[in-house]
Amino acid sequence: MRFRIWNRLLRDGRALAGMVFVFIVTVIALGGAYLRPDSTVNANQQDLSLARLGPGEVVQVLKVPIENESKPSLPAQGLLFGGLSLENRAIPFDGYRFSEDSILLYWKGEVREGMLLVEAMHDVQPDSYRKDGDRFVLSIRDGQSMNLTLAELRDRIRNECIGEKRFILGTDSFGRDMLSRLMGGAIISLSVGFISVLISLVIGIPLGAMAGYFGGRWDAIIMWFINVIWSIPTLLMVIAITLVLGKGFVQVFIAVGLTMWVEVARIVRGQFIALRELPFVQAARSMGFSDARIMLKHLLPNAIGPVIVISAANFASAILIEAGLSFLGIGTQIPMPSWGTMIKEHYAYITTDLAYLAILPGLCITALVLSFMLIGNSLREAFDVRSA
Q1: Residues 6+ apart with CB under 8 A from 288
Q2: What is 2-28+177-387's CATH topology?
Q3: 156 FRET partner, CA 20 to 30 A, in 34, 206, 336, 372?
Q4: What are the tens digits of pLDDT across the range 70-108?
């Protein structure tokens, strides 16, 4: 049975493409700061002078070492929602000139910043240098010293400290790297979908199992409760729960999960009603097995197929709901890189040449939701014994 389902999935080109895309997005999400060009927490390195740069633009930067910056104590600190401590501060400029033992950086014709040459060198201890005639005696971080002329010092700045920074997808209205923000939004969407589906399964499976297996009064009470929840619009209930629990990332997946369990419960109830009178269940009862064992060991494995299918659909719905809540301002809060928040920040540019700032996160949402829907449709066909 298991191999037959996998074979059907692998033969379905659309489902295979969806699984490949979900896998890529998952790797990006898990890799976190180690894969993003902007490795800071939430990919939130801002520079308003770089706002709204076009895709592929390159700027010159002076890499200046950051002092007293703590480094991550564990390699895992950069995974998922984490970030890495910056060793260098990249100062963008469009021109520079040397002035004695200093360097002046220009941006759009004005002086942006000036500093001593030794302050920009990575291997020199701060405030640990002196002039000896026309030469500079510098103390290096490993305890050694360096003796350079002013020309040699300038050459080291040109070769080691001045570089380029490329923005593959440009920058947003706050000067943040657009590609990094999109990559950071992947973990938000996947985690909301995963946790929401998990919550819906934890609540929906037990309630649906009890209603379908025991029937009678249990079924009437649980179905009444399910119908009450079912009658309330999902988005309205999510907004109400979010307002009660407060705004934030954790509140989003709790609210979404608490609204999706009704579909799971209805599916499980229907499956248990169809299975509970079959001979193998009657045989298990005659052998004296407990109700809990019959439900867990015999009924649930036979009902898990439709549950997997509805979970794939719920995963896609959770991503859409999170994006909608973030767009409305009551979901994931800034500076977390939610795709819905990114659309909200830039939808005003939709009629300008900066429309890609809102279109790109929208395409990410569409592609991920479509992938889960294709996987869900293929799973439904794979579990359908009539199509065997």
Answers
A1: none
A2: MetI-like fold (1.10.3720)
A3: 34
A4: 554 466 777 778 888 887 888 999 999 988 888 899 998
Residue 386 has a pLDDT of 47
pLDDT band at 388 (very low <50, low <70, confident <90, very high): very low
Helices (H), 329-355: 339-346
Q: Where are the alpha helices (DSSP H) in the chain?
A: 2-11, 13-31, 117-120, 150-156, 178-214, 216-230, 234-245, 249-275, 279-286, 291-293, 300-328, 339-346, 356-383
d(CA 325, CA 333): 10
pLDDT at 142 over 80: no
> Hey, which residues does 166 pair with through a beta bridge?
58
β-strands 88-93, 57-65: how paired? antiparallel
Phi first, then psi: what are they for 166, rounded to 5°?
-105, 135
Q: How confident is the model at residue 2 (pLDDT cuts 50, 70, 90)?
A: low
Tokens representing 24 are 């890529």
The full set of domain ranges for the chain reads 2-28+177-387, 57-167
Euclidean distance between CA atoms 350 and 18, whole angstroms: 28
> What is the secondary structure of 119-144 as a DSSP string?
HH-TTEEEEEEEEETTEEEEEETTS-
Whether the pTM exceeds 0.85: the reply is: yes
Residues ≥6 apart with Cβ < 8 Å to 117 = 98, 101, 102, 103, 153, 154, 157
Closest C-alpha among 385, 349, 382 to residue 16: 382
Highest mean predicted confidence (pLDDT) among 67-76, 323-332, 333-342, 359-368: 359-368
Give the residue-averaged pLDDT of 313-327.
91
User: Encoding tokens for residue 36?
Assistant: 């993003």
Q: Are strands 110-116 and 102-107 parallel, antiparallel or unpaired?
A: antiparallel
Range ranked top by mean pLDDT from 43-47, 363-367, 383-387: 363-367
CA distances (Å), origin 158, targets 62, 164, 202, 238:
9, 12, 60, 55
Contacts of 229 (CB under 8 A, 6+ apart): 237, 259, 262
Who's near 233: CB < 8 A, 6+ residues apart? none
